[in-house]
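To illustrate the input format used throughout this study, we show a single complete record. The first block contains the structure-token representation of the backbone; no residue identities are included at this stage. The design step must infer an amino acid for every position from geometry alone.
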């Protein structure tokens, strides 16, 4: 059996006022998931729990993301979340603070025989 990628989705999320990196990451993941009705398990005859989910989040301050809180987004499957430097922090022009922008990539795979 080999880990075989069957789906890749991308999303973007923001925290407009609170500079909350976890919330921006949560919104980016949800944006990616809402682009697709991730029903790949049924299409391949696997239980939903068999989905291997690799999620990568890009934000300017990766250490400020609570990865454990992001795991709650996935009701099934085996999620692995990696946070790296990326995204954007945009200074506000007339006040202190900045808008946080997070980017997400969600990859769904299964352990399956590759097609011949």
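Output of the design step:
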């Amino acid at each position: 059996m080999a880990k075989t990628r069957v789906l890749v989705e991308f999303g973007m999320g923001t925290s407009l006022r609170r500079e909350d990196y976890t919330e921006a990451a949560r919104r980016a993941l949800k944006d990616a998931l809402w682009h697709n009705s991730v029903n790949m398990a049924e299409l391949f005859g696997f239980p939903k729990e068999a989905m291997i989910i690799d999620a990568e989040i890009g934000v300017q301050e990766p250490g400020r993301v609570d990865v454990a809180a992001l795991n709650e987004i996935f009701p099934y499957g085996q999620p692995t979340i990696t946070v790296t430097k990326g995204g954007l922090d945009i200074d506000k022009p007339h006040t202190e603070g900045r808008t946080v922008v997070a980017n997400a990539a969600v990859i769904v795979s299964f352990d399956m025989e590759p097609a011949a």
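Structural context for interpreting the output: DSSP finds three helices and five strands in the chain. The chain has a mean pLDDT of 91.
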